[in-house]
Amino acid sequence: MKARLDYDDLTVLAYRFKGDRICTAQRFAAYREALGDRFRGHELPDDPNPDVPRSSQPTSPTPTASSQFTW
After folding, report:
1. What pLDDT, on a 0 to 100 scale, did the predictor assign at position 58?
2. Which pLDDT band holds residue 57 (cuts at 50, 70, 90)?
3. Where does the chain show beta strands of DSSP type E?
4. Are 37 and 2 in contact (CB under 8 A)?
5. Distance of CA 35 to the CA centre of its chain
6. Distance, CA of 34 to CA of 28 (rounded, Å)
7. Phi, psi angle pair for 3, to nearest 5°
8. Domain coordinates in residue numbering, the chain
9. Residue 61 banded pLDDT, cuts 50, 70, 90
10. Contact in structure between 48 and 21 (CB atoms under 8 Å)
């Protein structure tokens, strides 16, 4: 993969949440180690917006399209 990135002058742009249990910090570090400067990884905070008080953040998922209509 690194050879392809170098050959075509490509960069991998990746994001992960700091507390992500699937894409762990170790996995991100392995990508960084394997791909060098071709890997641009960014870690996002687990809290989507720390400046907004928890009480004003939505507590339920966004309604689906089918639940938005009354027949």
Report:
1. 59
2. low
3. 12-17, 39-44
4. no
5. 18
6. 10
7. -60, -45
8. 1-47
9. low
10. no
Give this prediction's pTM.
0.60
| Local structure of 37: helix, strand or coil | helix
Tokens encoding 60? 């339920």
The SS3 call for residue 30 is helix
CB 12 within 8 A of CB 35: yes
Give dist(CA 29, CA 34) in Å, integer.
Answer: 9
pLDDT in tens, 3-54: 999 999 999 999 999 999 999 999 999 999 999 999 999 999 987 676 766 6
- The pair of structure tokens assigned to 13 is 């742009």
Round to whole Å and give the CA distance between 44 and 20: 10
